[in-house]
Amino acid sequence: MIEDITRANEVISRLKKALSEKVKENAQARRDYIYLLADFENFKKRSEAEFKECRNEGKAEVVIKLSEPINELFYFRDEILKNLGNNSELAKGFIMIMEKLLKSLFESGFSLIDPLNQAFDPKYHHIAYTQKVEDEALKGKVLKVLSKGYMQNGKVIKPAIVVVGV
Known about the structure:
- By secondary structure, the protein is α+β, with helices and mostly antiparallel strands.
- Helices cover 61% and strands 19% of the residues.
- It has helices at residues 2-84, 89-107; strands spanning 110-113, 125-131, 142-147, 149-152, 155-158, 160-165.
């Protein structure tokens, strides 16, 4: 009977040791899983940010390519209004189409830089040339906008091309 108790104690001891090892292995596997999960979450966030950045860069490229025709549409609109007036059906239709186009841009996070009569700011404007002015109040101001600029979510993607008074 004592032999059976001794053997049972040895079995119990081996089982406790095996259980202890399995508990340690389980704890390590759990830590490894938590680290892997955290790495995956970080990877997912980085991937989403990179995708969003690529998408925004793609949108910006399209707007940059469209900026010249859009600027020509602004010029054409001004000429239509000057020659036909606000009440002409052509002017109304043209303005409605332009407003739809600009609304689409604005809804995509873009905004215009149209700095006429504002102080020159090299962050938002590039000088095409300067023009002498007699009025001190016009010095350093944008006298004419040759090409409107564009921003995407607060970041300049194409500065406005301007004439500045000196």
